[in-house]
TrEMBL record:
Boundaries of every Glycosyl transferase family domain copy: 4-186
Protein's recorded name: Glycosyltransferase family 25 protein
Highest taxon in the source lineage: Bacteria
Family annotation (InterPro entries): Glyco_trans_25
Length: 250
């Protein structure tokens, strides 16, 4: 029995998960209720060691962070890999075949990034601790919605490259030891800046858990799929953070 992809989705936006099911009907998935950032009592998470007292994430970003952290904790407690997706991901049908090959080939991997933001540079590890960057090509929401089945039937085998920096966590696999490392490195969330891949001397403002995770990839056994095997619709109009479904500040 395949380990299902855990899909983080808010209870109050059921259409997003319905769309995810439609786009990814060939894959085993399990819906995970996202944490409502607007309902969090920050002081309780400060006391629990999840947030620092000076964390200034938006309530939406805090909810997303807690949602991912809970799944890392589950990976550790159950000593099991977690495949984690956000609910706007379109995933290739051969995901499990690609994952199985990567799992058999890579030694003691911590995290595998399968889907990420293509409107932000990716940083990869090169010789003498140098970071090289690459940029993708952003596709429109309509293009992805109209051509998703073509993408999902793609058979081009991706390369897994040593990762230093990336934005977005649309789909990733995390091992129990990788989850433990992220919990140890990220918590409590303190909002330290990350490095910008195109110029590592430039600070990248830490506005969410994906930026916080990116701060630590260089010190982990972290790999990125290129080309990606998951694409993000990134519907800003209906985003639960930036669009019509924005969390309300209290």
């Amino acid at each position: 029995m395949l380990n299902p992809i855990r899909v983080i989705s808010l209870d109050r936006t059921p259409q997003r998960f319905t769309d995810f099911q439609k786009f990814n009907s060939q894959l085993p998935i399990q819906r995970v209720s996202a944490c409502e950032g607007g309902e969090l009592k920050k002081e309780e998470y400060v006391e629990a060691g999840i947030f620092s007292c000076d964390l200034e994430y938006s309530v939406g970003a805090m909810g997303i962070a807690v949602s991912h952290i809970r799944l890392w904790q589950e990976a550790v407690s159950e000593s099991s890999v977690r495949h984690i997706a956000e609910d706007d991901a379109i995933i290739r049908n051969d995901f499990y075949q690609i994952f199985a090959e990567a799992d058999a080939t890579l030694k003691e991997w911590d995290i595998l990034l399968w889907g990420y933001n293509d409107d932000w540079p990716v940083g990869l590890s090169s010789y003498f601790n140098a970071v090289v960057s690459l940029e993708g090509k952003t596709r429109s929401q309509n293009f992805l919605r109209e051509n998703y089945s073509v993408f999902q039937q793609e058979k081009k085998k991706p390369a897994l490259l040593p990762l230093v920096s990336v934005a977005g966590i649309g789909l990733y696999s995390i091992s129990p030891q990788g989850a433990r490392k992220l919990l140890d490195k990220c918590l409590p969330l303190t909002q330290h800046n990350a490095k910008y891949a195109k110029d590592t001397s430039v600070p990248w403002f830490n506005t969410g858990i994906d930026v916080e995770m990116s701060r630590h990839y260089e010190d982990m056994n972290a790999y990125l799929s290129f080309p990606p095997i998951a694409l993000m619709v990134n519907d800003m109009e209906n985003s639960t953070i930036r669009g019509k479904n924005i969390f309300k500040e209290e």
